[in-house]
Amino acid sequence: MLIRKATIEDLPVLLQFEQGIITAERPFDSTLKPDPISYYDLEAFITSTDVQVLVAEIDGEIAGSGYARIKKNPDVYYDFEKYAYLGFMYVLPAYRGMGVNQAIIEELKKWTVEQGLTEIRLEVYNDNIGAIKAYEKAGFKKRMIEMRIRL
């Protein structure tokens, strides 16, 4: 498995991955607008110095993706000014359970440390048990539960 920085040439595959993420998340959030929607400006992320977009290649095929994006901490009461936010985590179904997600996260952790950051955060739907287990396996811990009511 090769973990590498994404390039503009990878964009067609990455746009398909984005739709895969949206499809997977629809059952967890009834407030998502009908298709077509987009979560990310992937081209801008790939070319940004504040975002590290990675892909995992297996036998020449892009099998998974993820990014870490530097974000400013809006809350002055924490002991860090900036943190890395993880997103765009996707693995093709044929490659799930092979450690692709873990390998991408490990490389994103290294990049985060190289940026001088000490905090990584992400969001995951409460009912997405598989994703929660994968993130816990990578060392993430639950911190806060967001609650809402639709009126």
UniProtKB/TrEMBL annotation:
<keyword id="KW-0687">Ribonucleoprotein</keyword>
<protein>
    <submittedName>
        <fullName>Ribosomal protein S18 acetylase RimI</fullName>
    </submittedName>
</protein>
<feature type="domain" description="N-acetyltransferase">
    <location>
        <begin position="1"/>
        <end position="151"/>
    </location>
</feature>
<keyword id="KW-0689">Ribosomal protein</keyword>
<dbReference type="InterPro" id="IPR016181">
    <property type="entry name" value="Acyl_CoA_acyltransferase"/>
</dbReference>
<dbReference type="InterPro" id="IPR050276">
    <property type="entry name" value="MshD_Acetyltransferase"/>
</dbReference>
<dbReference type="Pfam" id="PF00583">
    <property type="entry name" value="Acetyltransf_1"/>
</dbReference>
<dbReference type="InterPro" id="IPR000182">
    <property type="entry name" value="GNAT_dom"/>
</dbReference>
<dbReference type="GO" id="GO:0005840">
    <property type="term" value="C:ribosome"/>
</dbReference>
<dbReference type="GO" id="GO:0016747">
    <property type="term" value="F:acyltransferase activity, transferring groups other than amino-acyl groups"/>
</dbReference>
